Amino acid sequence: MIDALAGKVLAGGRLNADEALLLYREAPLHLLGQLAHTVRQRRHPEPIVTYIIDRNVNYTNVCVAKCNFCAFYREVGAADGYVLGFEEIFRKIDETLAVGGEQLLLQGGHNPDLPLAWYEDLFRAVKARYPSFKLHALSPPEVLHISRLSKLPVPVVIERLIAAGLDSIPGGGAEILVDRVREHLHCHTKATADEWIGVMRDAHLAGLRTTATMMYGTVDTLEDRITHMMRLRDLQDETGGFTAFITWSFQPEHTERGGMEATGVEYLRTLAVARLVLDNFDNLQASWVTQGGKVGQLSLAFGANDMGSVMIEENVVRAAGASYCMDELEIVLNVEGAGFVPKRRNMHYEVLGDPIVRERDVPRMLTLATARAEGDDSRPEELSQYEARSRQEKERRAASRPS
Amino acid sequence: MAAQWETWTARVAAGGTLTNEELQLAAASPEILALGMLADTARRAQRGRVVTYLRVASVDPDQGIDAAAVAAAGEVRVTGAYPGREAAEAQLARVRREAVGRMVTAWSLADIEAAGEGALPGVLARLRAAGLDGVAEVPVDRLKSPGAAVAALVEAGFLAIRVTVEKAGGESRLPLLEALQAAAAAGPVTAVHPLPLVLNPFRPTTGYEDVRTIALARLAMPASVAVQVDWPRYGPKLAQVALTFGADDIYGVPAVDAAPDGPRRGLLLEVRRNIEAAGFEAVERDGSFARSASQAV
Q1: Which of A74, A233, A393, B106 is within CB 3.0–4.6 Å of A81 for a Cys-Cys bond?
Q2: Measuring CA to CA, which residue among A122, A333, A35 is closest to residue B203?
Q3: Helix (H) or strand (E) segment spanning residue A215
Q4: Which of B235, B244, B278 sits opposite A292 (nearest CB)?
């Protein structure tokens, strides 16, 4: 049966859920990799592996969602809760531009004290200062959160964010698109599976390109992961709006859920199966930030054609225990060492050129930056211009008002 | 090349081996998964589906010895550089008192050789008489003659011989493979650790390099030799993937996992889970490669 399914894949046939599950469960690892690599070569005949130089900025860690797999969030009113100021974000953009980056991946917690106007003002301010700089921002649950706060329909929120400068939407918050799993993870209230898909559909219809993700390795079964991939494939058939798929394993350290991380072999199997199932996705990223550089590089033999982002900064995965770092030079060396040609790209996966490190000196970056320096508890002045929704923030403002 | 891989795979599945010329062709091929499949086939034919792992207690005799770690370990390893024969004998005497019934290993054979304390078999015999059960590292890339070094270990009466590599050798693995083969031909080598034990943080080896080295070592070594990967140095993810490229022994699992909040037993579960998730059977062993009577975790 495995041989027959391998033959079907090699002949260009589309796997159904049962067939994909059988391969996922029973196909030998190397065979899965070879099939995934063949499909990847069919889609990308040139031996190019792309990557982007951008920065993962988390504008706030305050979040009301309380997903039990997250080690990054802080409750409203927590002493170490933060919101980045516009000036801090501009400084991060300057640093990103200095190393050849041209985009921020901007995501954050569901902070009740940040209304739609804050996002609009931030995006406009970024675009006014850096007109060609791209904002890959606000995963579907964040868009839903803003929609609920503002009492505006999702399509209207997306329209206003685009008008303010939003360029594309990252696929975060998908976890596993099965509500039973989402209920266990305490993330169904931030977005059900249908709601996540719905926001992506609205974004695609509004002309935005987005990515899609999958975080596996909690309470999900192999069947759940295949269901997740099928939902993505269906929406991609409908809209064609996804640029890429990124999967990673749950990082348990410091989380309420805890437990053990899925293994490296499970990652490679999952990636390879995703390449086979998601036959309408052009790009699959290697998640070196969760798997490390070595398995990240090996991902290129298991269906990945993109090394993701140089990142510069990362906060969410680090909070859960992963501390891998690869600067542009190391990504380039890993791509070349695997027999591919490294190329810089933008969020639309258009090739921008050769590595920056081959054109000019760029300082080595052996650790990723964080959102804020340790002990920095400053509050941005502009926050007071926006209506506070939480009791804690209202009380804080009242207490700081001159009597 | 596809037909070539199939021919080789059929041969190693039947218990055959590759010639050195074929090994060179395999080493030069960019087809990492075909190489992995070949090495995995060879490993299953030669060694079955068992992956052994060894808990090691690293002890500094000058800093005191953790009795709990020693009790949990299959091997007690003296850390630090070779201090010269007299100091080494004194260290062994201290460790031996605490490590009753445990295999005690220490030092690098290259350092012992470089100390120039006389003929190597004689020095090794005295260390063995002082309580040393095994030389921890036999780095073929640093020894004057790997074959002669293994012969000296055999002459001194060492039974479990573990051959290692100290530094990454660059693109060509052939000199390394030849050195490993020379060592294995000189005596009953029990295991090889073909990945470098000294890591360069500014130019770490890549995942491709590591699994390629593992696979080629499996193909180059006789069936009697285990191919190891060091758990703390290479980490769970690479170590696990290495198992699917021909490795069949995990070395150096810490005997006690001293997490910041106290010791935990999750580490052993993690080791076994990684082995099993790669499709193998996990079996604990001791430093002499005898399988542990207790599989309790």
Answers
A1: A74
A2: A333
A3: strand A209-216
A4: B235
Q: How confident is the model at residue A321 (pLDDT cuts 50, 70, 90)?
A: low
pTM of the predicted model, to two decimals?
Answer: 0.93
Which chain A residues touch B201 with a CB distance below 8 Å? Answer: 366
Cβ density class B189-225: b for 16+ within 10 Å, e for less: bbbbbbbbbeeeeeebbbbbbbbbbbbbbbbbbeeeb
Of A260, A298, A366, the CB nearest to B270: A260
Q: Do A263 and B235 touch (CB under 8 A)?
A: no
Query: What CA–CA distance (Å, rounded) separates A21 from B53?
Result: 31
* CATH, range B49-285: 3.20.20.70
Whose CA is closest to A290, among A332, A334, A335, A253?
A253
Q: Tokens representing A33?
A: 């990799």
CB-CB neighbors (< 8 A) of A296 in chain B: 207
Q: Sheet holding A168-169: strands in order across?
A: A55-58, A103-107, A134-137, A168-169, A209-216, A242-249, A283-284
Tell me if A65 sits within 8 A of A109, measured CB to CB: yes
CA–CA separation, A171 and B119 (whole Å): 66
Residue segments in chain B with a per-residue pLDDT below the cut of 50: 293-297
Between B31 and A376, whose confidence is greater? B31
The full set of domain ranges for chain B reads 49-285
Taking contacts as CB-CB distances below 8 angstroms, the residues of chain B near A31 are: 37
Predicted pLDDT at A371? 77
Q: Which residues of chain B lie closer than 8 angstroms to A295, CB-CB?
A: 207, 237-238, 241
For residue A298, give the nearest of B211, B273, B279 by CB distance: B211
Q: Are strands A209-216 and A168-169 parallel, antiparallel or unpaired?
A: parallel
- Mean pLDDT score across all residues of chain A: 93
Chain B's closest residue to A33, CA to CA, is B33
Among A122, A128, A120, A102, smallest CA distance to A59 is for A122
What domains are defined for chain A? Answer: 18-375 (3.20.20.70)
User: Closest approach of chain B CAs to the CA of A250, in angstroms?
Assistant: 14
